[in-house]
Structure formats: structure tokens, C-alpha cells
Amino acid sequence: MENKKKEKYKFNYYLNVNRNKPLIILLHGFMGNINEFDEAIKILTEDFSYLTLDLPGHGKTQVLGSDEYYKIQPIAQAIIHLLDELKINRCYLIGYSMGGRLALYLTIHFPERFIKVVLESSSPGLAIEAERLERVRRDTQIARKLSRSIIQTDFAAFLSNWYNQPVFGYIKNHLEYDRMIEIRLQNNPYELDKSLRFMGTGCQPSLWEKLQENKIPLLLLVGEYDKKFISINTEMAQICKFSQLRIIINAGHNIHFENTSAFVENIKEFFYTAS
């Protein structure tokens, strides 16, 4: 379905509602789309209703305003408006990587809307301004490469290099890796360029200090091969007393893809355990 007029966005989303089952919103990561969590949803749908959507810069969602609307703040507000339109008052929330940063922003700024939140391979941003500036510089360089990857072979080469990063562990050995790349190739590199430049880690406001004030239960999931995010999430768990950290075996950054069963098992246990 498409939400035709909400702020400066035309959201492409899918809502599956069973009135007897609680609802989860799932937010994909950078270069993902509405189908990011399909395998996990096949299992989760036994116990939950769900809402998935293409985030701005991805899939079929359209940004009808200026480049400012690729930033995390207006995107978060637009998602809240979408929930209002769909009459979703409170729900569970799952976010992966970039979608996890957005999920944490939503949790901190709209805590009354969420029951429990799962952050998969996510961070609160960068606390030090110099680090943010350096990250913006690096992301701008990557974005330029994306904007020049209009030919599909160039985009495929970009994706291959992207998944060589250490955080992704052994993802290229996965039997469904080629299928995942096919899904990534459905995105528009020009739109991804804007998403990276305006919603990258260096651009978003740091949420480290706000994390201390959070009272919504958080489940922090990281893969055992993703040493960078193990370190980040260990620090997050120390700061936020309403969080718990779990390290998932046989997975790097993309846990829901590499170890779907463990991903779903941890989510179900967390959502069904009393706080």
C-alpha cells in the first residue's frame, strides 16, 4: 500500500494485521527495502501482526520535499504520523543498523508509542564532533561513488566492496548472498546517495546522553563476528539500565539474514518476557 500524502513523503508500506496479535514495526538498514525481514517475518507472523516500509531513499518510497527530508528527524516524525493514520497507538519496534539508529531516535523522542524495542547492530551515533565530521567526510566520498553507480554492473561492484567490510563477517559465504544482492540492486543509487549523506551516522544527532534517560526496554543484538558493534553495544548496555545485550553466534552485522532462527528466537523471548 502507499501512503499518498503525509508530510513530504509518499511511503511504500505493507501492513498485515491480525487483531488478536500484537504489532511489530520493522525498519530496514541502509540499502535494504520493505522485504528486508521477509524470512524472519515468516516465523514472526505466527505470533505478531507487522508493518514494514521502505525508508526514504530506498525502495518505492518517494521524498516529495527537499533534501532536508532525508534526515532522521523529519523521517521519524513522518513515521509517527503514519502510525497515527493507521491508528497504531502502541507497538513493538525492530530496527537494523541504519533502521536501528532511527528506531532508537523514535524510542527516545516518542517513548509513549513503543512497548519494547529491538536494536540489531545499531548505535546511538557519534558523541564527539570531530568523529562526526570525519564520518561525514567519509560518507560523502562513499555517496559520490554511489551516485556514479548508475549502470547496474557498477552498482553490483559497489555492493561487493561494501560487503567486504569486517563488520559483515562471512556474509559472502551465505547460500542466499546472491539473492540478497539482487534485492539490494532494486534500489536507486542516486536515492541511496542522499540517504547516506543526510541520514548517515555522522549527520544524525548523538543519542548517547539521551540513552541514559531511556526507560523503554531495549534488546541489543550483535553478531559474534561484528567486533566493532560488540564494543559499541557493550557500552550502550552499561549506560542504559533498561537494556540487555545478546551476542548471536554464526553472524556478523546482518544477524536476521545470517542466523534468522536465533534472531527470531531472541525477539520472541524478549517480547514475551515481563519487564
SS field, number of helical segments? 11
Structural class: alpha/beta
Low-confidence stretches: 2-6
N to C succession of SSEs:
EEEHEEHEHEHHHHHEHEHH
C-alpha end-to-end distance: 34 Å
What is the helix content?
A: 40-55%
Strand content: 15-25%
The largest pleated sheet is described as: 9 strands, mixed
Mean pLDDT: 94
**Using DSSP, what is the number of strands?**
9
- What does the overall shape look like? globular
Describe what is shown at a glance.
Helix content is 42%, strand content 18%. It is an alpha/beta fold and 275 residues long.
Can you give a write-up of this model?
This protein has 275 residues and is α/β, with parallel strands linked by helices. The protein is built from 11 helices and 9 strands. It has helices at residues 38-44, 72-85, 98-109, 129-147, 152-162, 177-184, 189-199, 208-211, 227-239, 255-258, 260-272, and strands spanning 2-6, 9-16, 23-27, 49-53, 62-63, 91-96, 114-120, 218-223, 243-248. Strands 1, 2, 3, 4, 5, 6, 7, 8 and 9 form a 9-stranded mixed β-sheet that branches. Mean pLDDT is 94; it is low at 2-6.
List keywords for this structure.
275 residues; alpha/beta; nine-stranded mixed sheet; 42% helix; globular; disordered N terminus
Would you spell out the secondary-structure blueprint of this structure?
Layout: E1 2-6, E2 9-16, E3 23-27, H1 38-44, E4 49-53, E5 62-63, H2 72-85, E6 91-96, H3 98-109, E7 114-120, H4 129-147, H5 152-162, H6 177-184, H7 189-199, H8 208-211, E8 218-223, H9 227-239, E9 243-248, H10 255-258, H11 260-272
Parallel strand pairs: 3-4, 3-6, 6-7, 7-8, 8-9
Antiparallel strand pairs: 1-2, 2-4, 2-5
Helix pairs in contact: 1-11, 2-3, 4-7
